[in-house]
Amino acid sequence: MTPEFQLLGRALLVLGVVIAVAGLLILLGPNVPWLGRLPGDIAIRRDKFSFYFPLTTCLLISVVLSFILWLVGRSRR
Fold first, then answer.
1. Residue 36 near residue 54, CB atoms below 8 Å
2. Quick check: 43 and 52 in contact, CB under 8 A?
3. Which end of the chain offers a freer environment for a tag, N or C, measured as fewer CB atoms within 10 Å?
4. For residues 42 and 55, is the Cβ–Cβ distance under 8 A?
């Protein structure tokens, strides 16, 4: 098998795992009661207007994903 096909196969496997994990998070997301309601999440409610931005939740997810990607990248060396 040529190296190009091996690289394509690995990329497809990684993409499949990423899609599976994203699907799992979407399914289990509503079952985590504190996710989206952390201190630092911005919620503004007025009479006919509401605005919600999960700032702390986004930062937490970013840190966790960065750590996971760092571990994956480190294991490939």
1. yes
2. yes
3. C
4. yes
H or E stretch including 28?
A: helix 3-28
Tell me the residue type at 62: S
DSSP H or E run through 4: helix 3-28
Q: What is the per-residue pLDDT across 48-70, written as a single tens digit (0 to 9) for each?
A: 999 999 999 899 989 988 998 88
Q: Is 50 helix (H, G, I), strand (E, B) or coil?
A: strand
CA-CA-CA-CA torsion sign (29, 35, 41, 44): positive
Planar angle of CA 74, 27, 68, nearest 5 degrees: 10
Residue 12 exposure: Cα atoms within 13 Å on the Cβ side: 6
